Amino acid sequence: MSDAGLLAGIDVGGSKIAVLVADRDLAMCARATTPTSVDDAEGAVDRIASAVDQALGAAGLSIGDLGAMGIGVPGRVDTETGTVSLAVNLGWHQLPLGELLQQRYRIPVRVENDVRAAAAGLHERRVLGDGADLAYLSVGTGISAGVVLDGKLHRGARGMAGEIGHVVVDRDGPRCPCGLAGCLEAVASGPAVARRADAALDAGVDSSLRDLRPITAVEVYAAAAAGDALALRIAEEAGANLARAVHELVMAYDVPRVVLGGGVALAGRTFLDPILRGLDRLRAESELARDVLPPDVAQILPDGSEAGAWGAVVLARGGLGREVAHP
Amino acid sequence: MSDAGLLAGIDVGGSKIAVLVADRDLAMCARATTPTSVDDAEGAVDRIASAVDQALGAAGLSIGDLGAMGIGVPGRVDTETGTVSLAVNLGWHQLPLGELLQQRYRIPVRVENDVRAAAAGLHERRVLGDGADLAYLSVGTGISAGVVLDGKLHRGARGMAGEIGHVVVDRDGPRCPCGLAGCLEAVASGPAVARRADAALDAGVDSSLRDLRPITAVEVYAAAAAGDALALRIAEEAGANLARAVHELVMAYDVPRVVLGGGVALAGRTFLDPILRGLDRLRAESELARDVLPPDVAQILPDGSEAGAWGAVVLARGGLGREVAHP
Known about the structure:
The structure is a homodimer of 327-residue chains. Chain A is of the alpha/beta class and 327 residues long. Chain A is built from 10 helices and 13 strands. In chain A, strands 3-2-1-4-8 form a 5-stranded mixed sheet. In chain A, strand 1 and strand 2 form a beta hairpin. The first copy, chain A, is globular, with a radius of gyration of 20 Å. The two termini of chain A are 14 Å apart. The relative contact order of chain A is 0.16.
């Protein structure tokens, strides 16, 4: 077991790895973001290690300064063993990531689903003030929620709590890759927003997006910000569905706030405002909705929050001092 | 504080009061169910006391044998103070029920929402086997869920967790009294099922229900059991929506089982089978749904479970030995 105390938090995404190194009081010591793709299991550990080295090197630190490591992964994780059972977008299946990194670094390594790690980190760092309950709704390639209840991350009996991306919100909506029709992910994720724009252009709708194909959600929100009518309509529809998701999270868990993040949320107000309008419509229709949805129920993460990497740092802190097996 | 150890559990409904008296090991000592209505706040304590007296008297017990009391109420409860802030169907508003009963009996009295109390009781009594996580979905005049996570009742930041009766499941559905359109309660509660039958008969649909108006949900399910085509169709639609609710509860909380109860669930297989078919359709469409919905995910309470009154007994047990204020 290392006596050194620094924490490495690693957020593994489909197209980049973000590393934050912090001390036990969560003061930042080093950071690195590499666009390196981690698209196969074999090279994953090497690429993660190289990103960690980069962060340490830039701050004049070395591996020996690390006391624990936390990793957030977009997928299903067995947090006991540190094995990633399935991360579709990374192509990982039953990857013993925690064990592999622990063998390499000889420090405790904890692995968690990225959105859940981010939720726990937001709570523990009091990013949005005090309060024992929050949901973090991540909207990106997929949609899922991490939920903190009574001050504790709720993982669920099978570690799948908050997978509301595959709850049906519009039964007449498009078919989701999961098989169901009208899942939240099928109507409001990044790819869903892009597909809607593509379909409208295919149908001959005029829009500033017409020269950008294939279209990304980032481009749709940028066009909406610039006043494009089609993009505005698509953003409004996605926001209405996300407002329903916020409402649902509040009704299910009784969390007084839902924090929005993820790649699509980087569009900022263009992303948030349609959600706020959707919530206002629910409030206008229902006294109960007014009652359960406080004015600040939906909040967007401030720019540069690095919720994923900070979540991984907090995860690492929880692992400090744990025994490391030496097989 | 009384040294006596018996527990009184009281389930207050819109049309009856059920009382169970049990010892600390939850062995039943006495019971009474009175059809007495508790429809105004003024007489509530007297009527509850009379039901308790009846149960005690029938078993040769007296008030001095009671060590604690628990009460489940269909409404919003401040469990700290024992005040019922709102119980719409009982016409109660800011009723300090716990305090009033505590003054009368001089024993600890705990008050809880009836569905949450039932959920906690089902868990603590291991009615459906071991397992730290379950949702109890009560379908009656209203619909709501009580949720046990990691072995503990989840109440939520404002004591409203599980109020999924007002989550929109069919945005084209009928308007709910809450103001929103297509809430779960507006498509699958007892009154909703009855309204659907009424509307179909108004529209000239032939059915054995035509001579029974005004129709109740009990009659619709009885007619479905007897093969009436209209009633079968209504039961099937309600079941499909409840299957979505079960799916949603599983996706949100990651509970491996959802226990169905409440007045409408007394229809038994006629109520349950359409839900099971709805779940099978979700499984047929989606591998993820197959994955998260185990074969026994939806279970119905066995006849005579008295989940509400037993939940109140378990609630009482939690209050044993607490200080009682003597104002």
